[in-house]
Write a structure and sequence with these properties.
elongated, 5-stranded mixed β-sheet, 23 helices, Butyryl-CoA Dehydrogenase, subunit A, domain 3, Butyryl-CoA Dehydrogenase, subunit A, domain 2, alpha+beta
């Protein structure tokens, strides 16, 4: 099924909002309709506008979109129940006609046997029929009586008594019932996310307007980071839900898994984001004059209903362990996927048994082959000797090498430094430097961080003072990975100590380090890598090595950092390999390693897999946004880094809990789970969190993009 176009879906959701604005205008309406009168009127409106006949068109994307909008006003109109019933009863023209015109208003109950009564029924006061879903049977009965059961849900859930007469009964394929349950789960998650997302919006507005201690409260990191976490989780949740819808419409055999991943992540994210938003709103959002309390009820009601609609295949971990597949792919377009096949053929030559990057990473043969194949300079325009690769193709190359634990350091040089030389370098610099980078033999390190300057790069202190055609540099750089083997340094210096703002006084150089006045001191990191302190003592740099304008280095730096952060976000591919390695180990003895379905270890795997898929979908979104706009992705790229970086820490730590002490052993020990990758990445994970701008700084960037005050 093709689904609706983006424009059609936008028009449809606009129409839904228009109807809701008159018939269910705000979340407080949930507490103002105890007898279901307004809900019945809304149901009639849904029939009038064709929402109750969406099953005939297979428009599940419209249903999910509508449920998201319903969640924003805490409305329990059961559109997915209507859609699923219409699909299951398609052969009964009389019933489907009644569903379409609103005279038959069904709600669904998943049961283990035919029963005269059901509990926890949503929207029962407005419904006419209950559809009982058994393992391989569908039964429809009229509602005989409704008893409200007050609690979290508003309008209240109900205990429902059913008439003895059967309106419809039919055997059906168990797969059809499982499909129905999967869609119901996705609909509940979509509605909960809609409600939580709206509360996050309220909290963002409140953080910008509410003043405490003389400042808008959004200026306090405790508030802004909480808001960013909520916005990040909601962005990922919406993307995962859309990915599951797309998989269903495309008829992929992985769509149940896509649904379970979306639900696993989004349900918990909605609950956490709701709590976070309520904390920001504080007393302002605690009283029922505000919509937040009613949205709170909606989120928790929908999340709690999910347990009653479990799939026979189990949770995410159960599906992954019992199959031979990994997480569903996110395709980047036909051209990019064709290139992926090319890259996989290339990496086959260099795959090793090593499971960690420092073992199977860059080697001379790999670097030479990458340069010869044009992969090193693939991002450069053809006019500069590159292949003008699309952003999607660049991401494919990064993903595939990261998955295989291979590193082409010369491509990082080409992407960061070569691109800067192409954009800001002189013709002489381009002629002199670009061929060296393109050769694949360009060992360099980043001269950014300093003892007092990490993520706050604009405050760097290393000075460069002009002396004719040279600059005299004095200062110290820290954490220069690879500086002990580097021939070149990408050096950020301060050339105007009085510049306001400080970043206006920075100048960039790309220069060799084999001259007097340069000294290296090595440090061994927790991961085993060598990073260095480097000292510049009257170190002379030719002006011919200056990249860009004097005091114009900040523009050069930010362009290079943007590329670095996309690379950092791509560590999701590395975690993907870790997950596949973990699953391969678990599949050898599932019961002995992780226990039965529902065990704590399986729940952990489900959560980690869903978080990984959330990071991957944001990476995919950031690539598409960058390709579409030609610039960076303001939100998606840093959001992806936030999720993926923290995930690597949690994943590696969880592997030790799943496999026990054996996972804490290194790659040199025979038969270690993951071949040593788990303990190595546990040690290395800190760098993913703090490197390239710590995730706290990334949260600040997202906060600025969301309009929060500095």
């Amino acid at each position: 099924m093709p689904g609706l176009t983006a424009e059609e879906l936008q028009d449809f959701t606009g129409a839904v909002d228009g109807v809701l604005s008159t018939r269910w205008p705000h979340a407080r309406s949930a507490g103002e309709d105890p007898l279901g009168a307004e809900l019945r009127l809304l149901w009639a409106g849904a029939a009038e506008y064709g929402w109750t006949d969406l099953a005939s068109a297979g428009a599940v994307d419209a249903v999910i979109a509508a449920l998201g909008r319903l969640g924003r006003v805490a409305c329990p109109l059961p559109l997915m129940d209507v859609y699923v019933t219409g699909s299951l009863l398609a052969a009964d023209e009389k019933l489907t006609a009644g569903i379409a015109d609103g005279s038959v208003r069904p709600v669904i109950a998943v049961v283990e046997a035919d029963t005269p009564a059901v509990r926890f029924v949503e929207a029962a006061s407005a419904a006419t029929h209950v559809v009982l879903l058994l393992g391989a049977e569908v039964i429809v009965r009229e509602i005989a009586g409704v008893t409200e059961t007050p609690g979290v849900a508003k309008p209240s859930w109900s205990d429902v008594e059913l008439r003895a007469d059967v309106v419809f009964r039919a055997k059906t394929a168990p797969e059809a019932v499982e499909d129905a349950k999967a869609l119901i789960r996705l609909g509940l998650a979509a509605r909960a996310v809609g409600a939580a997302d709206r509360t996050v919006e309220f909290s963002l507005a409140h953080a910008k307007e509410r003043v405490a201690f003389g400042k808008p409260i959004g200026a306090f990191q405790a508030v802004s980071h909480r808001a960013v976490n909520g916005a990040t989780d909601m962005t990922a949740s919406r993307a995962l839900i859309r990915a599951a819808v797309d998989a269903h419409l495309a008829g992929r055999d992985t769509w149940h898994l896509a649904v379970q991943l979306a639900v696993q992540f989004a349900a918990l994210a909605a609950v956490q984001a709701q709590f976070g938003a309520q904390h920001t709103l504080a007393a302002s959002g605690y009283f029922e004059e505000h919509d937040a309390p009613w949205l709170f009820r909606r989120v928790h009601a929908d999340a709690s209903l999910l347990d009653g609609v479990a799939l026979a295949a189990g949770d995410v971990a159960d599906i992954l362990i019992e199959s031979t597949r990994g997480l569903p792919a996110f395709e980047l377009g036909e051209r990019a996927e064709e290139f992926r096949r090319e890259v996989r053929a290339f990496t086959t030559r260099f795959r090793t048994a090593a499971a960690v990057e420092h073992m199977g990473g860059s080697n001379r043969e790999l670097l030479d082959a990458a340069a010869e194949s044009g992969y090193v300079t693939m991002s450069w325009p053809q006019s500069a000797g590159g292949r003008g690769a699309s952003v999607e193709e660049q991401m494919v190359f990064g993903e595939e090498l990261a998955y295989e634990n291979l590193t082409v350091i010369s491509k990082i040089a080409a992407d960061m430094l070569g691109t800067a030389v192409i954009r800001h370098g002189t013709p002489e610099q381009q002629a002199r430097i670009l061929p060296l980078i393109a050769s694949g033999d360009f060992p360099f390190y980043l001269g950014y961080s300093e003892p007092e300057v990490g993520s706050d790069l604009a405050s760097l202190r290393t000075k460069a003072v002009r002396d004719g055609d040279e600059w005299i540099v004095n200062g110290r750089k820290m954490w220069g990975t690879g500086a002990h083997t580097a021939d070149w340094v990408w050096l950020a210096t301060r050339t105007d100590p009085d510049a306001k703002p400080p970043h206006a006084g920075i100048t960039l150089f790309l220069t060799r380090v084999d001259r007097p006045g340069f000294e290296v001191q090595q440090h061994t990191a927790l991961s085993g890598e060598i990073s260095c302190s480097t000292f510049f003592d009257d170190f002379r740099v030719p002006d011919a090595d200056r990249i860009g304008e004097v005091n114009g280095g900040w523009k050069v730096i930010t362009e290079a950092l943007a590329q670095e952060r996309v690379v950092m976000a791509n560590n999701a591919a590395s975690v993907m390999r870790l997950l596949d390695d973990l699953l391969a180990e678990v599949r050898k003895d599932p019961a002995g390693t992780v226990g039965p379905a529902g065990s704590a270890k399986r729940r952990t795997i489900s959560e980690l897999a869903a978080r990984l898929q959330a990071a991957r979908v944001l990476v995919n979104a950031s690539v598409r946004a960058t390709a579409k706009t030609g610039g960076g992705a303001r939100l998606e790229a840093p959001m992806a880094k936030i999720l993926a970086s923290q995930l690597l820490e949690d994943f590696s730590e969880a592997a030790l809990r799943i496999f026990g002490p054996a996972a804490a052993l290194g790659e040199g020990v025979p038969d270690v789970p993951g071949r040593g990758a788990f303990e190595y990445n546990l040690r290395y994970s800190i760098m993913h969190v703090v490197g390239g701008g710590s995730i706290d700084i990334q949260r600040n960037l997202v906060g600025r993009a969301l309009g929060l005050p500095r």
